[in-house]
Specification:
The structure is a single chain. With 424 residues, the chain is mainly α. It folds into 2 domains: 243 residues, Rhopdopsin 7-helix transmembrane proteins (Up-down Bundle); 137 residues, no CATH class. Helices cover 69% and strands 0% of the residues.
Length: 424
């Protein structure tokens, strides 16, 4: 009776609401943002007011026995309505506004009916945990319970059906995060449907004259509702948060993959360190590293030559690479050969060069011998760095077919200051 099985889900939902609050406030005029707020808030409030300790306190404060039941039923009805509204706006279409108004109007009618039925009923005994079964045969409150369970089951069925159909449509569209969110919602509302059916089974048993099934309503149904509410919140947040996490992960992975080429090109930096705040995002770090690589490659460009196409094609064929990879392998060969042969005097001139200005990471085609303009952006440079690292580590020949195992890549004999090449 300590209510921990109610308060813990409520706490989780409160944390989720705090995390999402800044973005919800920024988009407060959006119907979807408002629906998400109602979903999370109504779920959390429903658990708080359904907890037996809260039920007892509310009943004492108001002086109305079992008024918490009316409050909980109202919150959960709002949750169901908000879920449908969010799903309707999420899917889009020409009838969004009409469907939204229909569900909101229906929910308002249900809430009004709850109030009328509760006012007409007589429920003098406080039942914190088993009101559904204890008053299942009492006039008016009985109809209120049936209406609540019926609307809850109907909403769960509608949402499950819509989400399942939509997830199948998205299977071919490769919209993985949205599809995963929909499948989570199918599971969440499946638990909500199971909650309603278990309650119905216990209530029906009372109508049949037995209370042997009360445990379905008091012991099994509440945990299912808690898990379903938490999964509902997760399901709606996954398509929003997932792509951002994926973008950050991809940027960090590209940042790490560019490190071999970035370090090898260190002597051809500007000599001035590009400072990155510790709070910079992974995307910003990857962009700045790609910018530095592009800047250093332009300084190295005078040492490039085009004599490595044949060796690169043989290497790519031996590795089983496709035609697209030949471009990256060729540029990796050219960069490694240029690093091995570039004179120190050419590098010494870069000591006085100004620090590079952060810009979109694209390899310029202004220098005829510079890497192909087709190799650009963070992903392209990360892939180029991976091929460069592989060629360097295996000691693959960078010259013609007669070039035997070249010496490991080293810095020029008299390199410039490397203050710009240290690890961040």
């Amino acid at each position: 009776m300590d209510g921990s099985d109610y308060y813990i889900p409520a706490l989780v939902l409160a944390v989720a609401l705090l995390v999402r609050m800044p973005s919800l406030w920024q988009n407060r005029n959006s119907p979807m943002a408002r629906a998400i707020f109602v979903i999370i808030a109504a779920s959390g409030a429903g658990f708080v007011f359904a907890a037996p300790p809260t039920v007892e306190r509310v009943n004492r404060l108001t002086g109305v026995p079992n008024v918490s039941a009316l409050i909980v039923y109202s919150f959960l009805s709002c949750l169901s309505c908000a879920s449908l509204v969010l799903l309707i706006h999420w899917r889009g279409g020409r009838t969004v506004r009409r469907q939204t108004r229909l569900w909101i109007a229906t929910t308002c009618c249900i809430l009004l009916t709850f109030c009328v039925l509760f006012t007409l009923s007589e429920v003098p005994l406080e039942r914190p945990r088993d009101l559904d079964t204890f008053y299942s045969t009492t006039p008016y409150i009985r109809e209120m319970i049936v209406l609540y369970l019926t609307s809850h089951a109907a909403t769960a069925t509608v949402v499950m059906t819509k989400c399942w159909r939509w997830s199948k449509e998205l299977r071919a569209a490769k919209a993985d995060w949205t599809r995963w969110g929909l499948l989570i919602l199918v599971t969440a509302f499946g638990l909500g449907l199971a909650f309603a059916l278990l309650k119905f089974a216990a209530v029906g048993a009372h109508w049949a004259g037995t209370d042997t099934w009360d445990w379905l309503s008091t012991d099994i149904a509440p945990p299912l509702a808690g898990l379903g509410a938490a999964m509902t919140t997760v399901g709606f947040l996954v398509p929003v948060v997932g792509p951002r996490l994926q973008s950050a992960y991809d940027a960090w992975r590209a940042y790490r993959r560019m490190e071999p080429l970035w370090r090898a090109l260190g002597p051809w930096g500007s000599g001035a360190r590009m400072r990155i705040p510790l709070t910079s995002s992974a995307e910003m770090r990857a962009t700045l590293r790609a910018t530095e690589i592009a800047d250093r490659l332009l300084r190295l460009a005078p040492s490039f030559d085009a004599a490595h196409q044949e060796a690169a094609e043989r290497y790519a064929a031996a590795k089983g690479y496709g035609q697209e990879a030949v471009l990256f392998v060729t540029e990796a060969f050219r960069i490694r050969a240029a690093l091995l042969s570039a004179p120190a005097a050419a590098n010494r001139a870069t000591e006085a060069a100004p620090a590079p200005v952060p810009a979109p990471a694209t390899l310029s085609a202004s220098a005829p011998a510079s890497p192909s303009v087709r190799i650009s952006g963070i992903d392209g440079l990360a892939r180029l760095s991976r091929h460069f690292s592989e060629i360097h580590e295996t000691g693959t020949a960078t010259g013609t077919a007669t070039t035997p195992n070249p010496a490991p890549l080293t810095a020029p004999a008299d390199p410039p200051s490397r203050t710009g090449g240290g690890r961040r």
